[in-house]
């Protein structure tokens, strides 16, 4: 199945463009019908993302609902991201990368310690980023609201033994994925600061978010 698809949308007509520096968090609202493009500006940068229903944040992206419905573990053009209530949250309408991870999760102090070394515990992580963004928003959300995320542009193949392998990315400078919101959403992003595996080519870089209004 061919999943690579170029977008017809013009950034010059976009509602908003936001560049997110390397290693930083972001919390943003996207309205139903709007399209959000995530651009890997320099290549091989993982963008760890969680989606919530803006009107009721107890409804959030569900990896299990999403993968069961599509019958596969990777996301690309044609994939629909479902909530924990079985409702469509977003549809991927264009993708020039071709595959996005759903299983690798977000790095945290605990996983950095287990995977790498005890002294890595206090390195900045995606989990820290999520909590920082929610604390700054002061919207009542916190640690209990964090759920398994999507890793856009990240390459985590499943091994023959059933494990996960963090590999060099499939992306390149300027590659993007474009998603259409099927409900009003809060988008919680960590532009991954990980330095211990190839998900960011050992060098975290900026990414860009471009938003268009519904046609």
Automatic annotation (TrEMBL):
Coiled coil: none annotated. InterPro entries: DUF1989, UAAP2. Residues 20-186 form the DUF1989 domain. PANTHER family: RE64534P (PTHR31527). This is Urea carboxylase-associated family protein.
């Amino acid at each position: 199945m061919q999943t690579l698809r170029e977008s017809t949308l013009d950034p010059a007509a976009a509602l908003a463009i936001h560049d997110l520096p390397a290693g930083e968090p972001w919390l943003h609202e996207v309205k139903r019908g709007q399209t959000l493009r995530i651009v890997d500006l320099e290549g091989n940068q993982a963008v760890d993302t969680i989606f919530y229903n803006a009107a009721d944040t107890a409804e959030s992206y569900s990896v299990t609902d999403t993968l069961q419905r599509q019958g596969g573990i990777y996301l690309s053009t044609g994939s629909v991201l479902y909530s924990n209530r079985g409702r469509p949250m977003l549809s991927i309408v264009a993708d020039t990368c071709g595959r996005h991870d759903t299983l690798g999760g977000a790095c945290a102090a605990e996983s950095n310690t287990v995977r790498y070394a005890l002294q890595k515990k206090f390195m900045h992580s995606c989990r820290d980023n999520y909590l920082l963004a929610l604390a700054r928003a002061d919207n009542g959300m916190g640690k209990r609201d964090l759920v398994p995320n999507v890793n856009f542009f990240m390459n985590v193949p499943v091994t023959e033994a059933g494990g996960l392998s963090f590999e060099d990315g499939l992306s390149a400078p300027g590659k993007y994925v474009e998603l259409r919101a099927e409900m009003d959403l809060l988008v919680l992003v960590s532009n991954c600061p990980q330095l211990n595996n190839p998900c960011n080519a050992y060098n975290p870089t900026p990414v860009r978010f471009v938003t268009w209004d519904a046609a």
